[in-house]
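TASK: fixed-backbone design
INPUT:
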């Protein structure tokens, strides 16, 4: 499939947010009970932000900051799912569609294992793909740096786009 040229394209995304009090902990469109949440101009969902960057990168459409700048008040506290929906329209306009997603979330707290199935289902629903095409893994940083000390949450995403 990859030898056909533009028929399949891979994108990589990464995002990290500090954790602060007074914000919901939103990950993959799912709100998880926790005393802190990701700081950000929108809802701060690092998984969906990394997914958006991966989709935009694979389609050759820039990055999240060029489409949703923090200086634009319309995105203040906006659900990242709305931003993802807009990006999916742009990606599909190029003749490509998401085929599969692999992601890794790095967070010391909260414990994410009980929420992985729900996050996976949410991402699949937002993308309009079968849940089997979305993989979500959770890792800790073993107490190292701001992630390991529970002061931040990060996400890494790889996405494959295929011809629609």
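OUTPUT:
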């Amino acid at each position: 499939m990859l030898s056909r040229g533009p028929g399949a394209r891979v994108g990589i995304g990464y995002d990290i947010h500090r954790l602060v009090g007074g914000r919901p902990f939103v990950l993959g469109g799912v709100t998880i009970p926790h005393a802190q949440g990701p700081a950000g101009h929108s809802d701060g969902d690092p998984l969906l932000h990394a997914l958006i960057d991966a989709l935009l990168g694979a389609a050759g459409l820039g990055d999240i900051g060029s489409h949703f700048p923090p200086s634009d008040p319309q995105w203040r506290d906006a659900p990242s799912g709305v931003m993802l929906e807009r990006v999916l329209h742009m990606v599909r306009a190029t003749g490509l569609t998401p085929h599969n997603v692999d992601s890794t979330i790095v967070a010391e707290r909260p414990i994410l294992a009980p929420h992985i199935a729900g996050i996976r289902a949410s991402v699949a629903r937002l993308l309009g793909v079968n849940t089997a095409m979305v993989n979500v893994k959770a890792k800790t940083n073993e107490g190292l740096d701001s992630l390991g000390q529970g002061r931040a949450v990060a996400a890494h995403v790889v996405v494959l786009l295929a011809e629609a």
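COMMENT: The first helix runs from residue 46 to 59.
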